[in-house]
Design brief:
Length: 367
């Protein structure tokens, strides 16, 4: 056989000449492939005498190990060189300003969420949260909703099968209202309670003003001396702050909700025409929210003594508030993922709503 030292020098030279990954792979195949130089030498060992075969086999294994180490070292060298070249050519100057047309926008629902939270936060309300998948007790039963109530029908509510029970009454629901958060709060916390519960809700409905998933905010106040007058004052202050008006006409119409007694719907004054809806002026009325005093049965179901405590609750749609305040005609567009719509109705990032810095005027819509 040939002198192994000269063979090693020859193979090392072949490796050192490789300038990129492709050339190095070709060298590896020429040396260690099925028809490579060292592979052929290994195959030739069978023709040697036993003693010479043993000694030559040991030397060839050492050579193979050394060549493999050189290949790995060369590979690491080439990869480092290529990475440095990429880093140099693909360098980004992070000090350059963002191109205005590529700037993102805050969704109107997110903006309304901030505004509502800011207003009620100044009034002393805490933000509470709960699961989107609810059991029927928290979504219906504890809220004094009878079994035959239309809201519990399958054409209005999304039900989820309980894998542990075949009984329909044990089925879960995708919550139809964030009122379930009020129940969970009263179960965990002793009065006085003052919370709002914003979040996603789900109902089987779809048109220009309804979608299967939408956003609501519910409010709850429980104390020993809370009255309907407190409810009206709270909502009046909220509506004025939200629409950023010094005065706004309001009225309350008697209504029915299973979880409040008495119940009412709040209307605000407006001016309606074929092309315009102006809030706070005119002789027309627009329904804005539902409210009422918490029903004693609800307090009992949540472990609160109705002889000692009473309170009020209200609920309104965040998406509908956004439509009214920012002149958005179709609710379905909120969830269409249209970049053009977002560019028109969205808000400039980092302009957070606050009572001190301003609500919608802080940054303003991107229209």
């Amino acid at each position: 056989m040939e002198d192994l030292q000269s063979i090693k020098a020859e193979l090392s030279g072949l490796i050192s000449k490789a300038q990129d990954g492709k050339a190095l792979e070709e060298a590896r195949v020429a040396i260690l492939g099925k028809k490579g130089r060292i592979t052929d030498m290994m195959k030739a060992l069978g023709a040697l005498p036993v003693e010479q075969k043993k000694e030559m086999g040991k030397s060839l294994n050492i050579l193979k190990t050394e060549i493999e180490a050189e290949l790995e070292a060369k590979k690491a060298e080439i990869e480092t060189k290529e990475l440095n070249a990429r880093l140099a050519s693909e360098m980004i100057d992070v000090t350059l300003p963002i191109r205005q047309e590529k700037q993102g926008r805050i969704h109107p629902v997110s903006k309304i969420y901030e505004e509502v939270t800011a207003i009620f936060g100044q009034m002393g309300f805490e933000v509470a949260d709960g699961p989107d998948i609810e059991d029927q007790f928290h979504n219906f039963n504890a809220l004094n909703t009878p079994a035959n109530h239309p809201a519990r029908q399958m054409q209005d509510t999304f039900y989820v099968t309980n894998p542990e029970s075949d009984n329909f009454d044990d089925s879960y629901v995708v919550r139809t209202q964030t009122s379930a958060v009020q129940v969970r709060t009263m179960e965990k916390k002793q009065p006085p309670i003052r919370i709002i519960a914003p979040g996603r809700t789900y109902r089987s409905d779809y048109d220009a003003t309804h979608t299967p998933m939408f956003h609501q905010v519910e409010g709850l106040v429980i104390d020993k001396h809370t009255t309907m007058a407190h409810l009206k004052g709270c909502l009046y202050d909220f509506i004025k702050a939200f629409f950023e008006l010094d005065e706004i006409p309001v009225r309350y119409r008697p209504s029915y909700f299973p979880f409040t007694e008495p119940s009412a719907e709040m209307d605000i004054g407006c001016l309606k025409s074929k092309t315009e809806l102006k809030i706070g002026a005119g002789n027309d009325w627009l329904e804005i929210l539902g409210c009422g005093m918490v029903h004693p049965n609800v307090l009992k179901a949540c472990g609160v003594d109705p002889d000692e405590y009473q309170g009020f609750a209200f609920g309104l749609g965040l998406d509908r508030l956004a439509m009214l305040k920012y002149g958005i005609p179709d609710l379905r567009d909120f969830f269409a993922s249209d970049v053009r719509w977002m560019k028109h109705y969205g808000f400039v990032p980092l302009d957070e709503a606050s009572m001190t810095g301003g609500l919608s005027n802080n940054g303003g819509a991107a229209r």
